[in-house]
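Weekly modeling sync, notes
Attendees: AB, CL, MP (scribe)

Item 1: holo prediction request
CL wants a bound-state model with MRU before deciding which constructs to order. AB pointed out that an apo prediction alone won't tell us much about the pocket. Agreed to run with the ligand included and paste results into these notes for async review.

Input as submitted:
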Amino acid sequence: MATVEWVGDGVRLIDQTRLPEQETYVLCTTAEEVAGAIRRMVVRGAPAIGAAAAYGMALAALQGRRSAGAAAIREARPTARDLFWAVELVEQAGDPLEEAHRIARDSVEACRRMGREGAALLPDGARIVTICNTGALAAVDYGTALGVVRAAHEQGKRPFVYVMETRPRAQGARLTTWELRKLGIEHRLIVDSAAGLLLRRGMADVAISGADRVCANGDVVNKIGTYPLALLAREHGVPFYAVAPTSTIDAGCPDGDQVAIEERAPGEVTTFAPSGTEAWNPAFDVTPASLVTALVTERGVLHGALA
Ligand code: MRU
């Protein structure tokens, strides 16, 4: 399985909207097709979005449509910093395709390093609660927060994972369970609202998430539900770790309240509601830096404000 892969005439993406039932792939041969795949969440997760955006920009440059391609990709989703970071890097590169390859390669290396850095924070047999999907599907390979769990597993530390289902798109229920099963890591699925009882009963030692954007003051913007998870972790004396590459740090953004939070279609939420019910569907929330025990990056583990 490859999440984001250059195949000569375009970028091939595993279709995450069809997992776990079907393992199918989508080939994008223009920046607009890449933008559409990002918007529909065929490809999702900040580092995977960044790599797909980089290849989309390379396609636009090869087709002599740099600025139209950049505009389409920038409009795809607003919150993940990696998307804008990758577009800028490829826009300025002398060899756009080589730059996109470099971004993809470096991303895998960063994930492996974060895995090693983060695994050192986990005790043997750690019981970990996590939200969304932050594994190989959310990156080019290996993953961010789930990469930490994977590294601990590879080191023989026997991690156990409580997977929050992650309403409304069910990235935890559909994707994280799929990855953990393949990796042979023990896990249980919980509904998002079970996290409170889980932590109150002392059933988890660590809470861990990825990040879509980290602000200069250390605020972490991530999947909706991360903030309540971090609050619960603090209340129950459990460390909350965010895991993200330094490309996700937005030094120009003072705090989480300045970040554009994506609002998605109400239909993602109203599945069980009477027809005509209105819904508010923010896809991300802001976890204040004060609730983040540490930020794990490929350059080391950071505590406190980043500015
Ligand atoms: O809406 P998604 O599925 O793209 O959201 C993904 C997350 O919230 C992840 O935690 C985040 O991108 C960082 S880890 C890959």
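Recorded for review: The chain has two domains: 4-109, 117-303.
Action items: CL to compare against the apo run; MP to circulate these notes.
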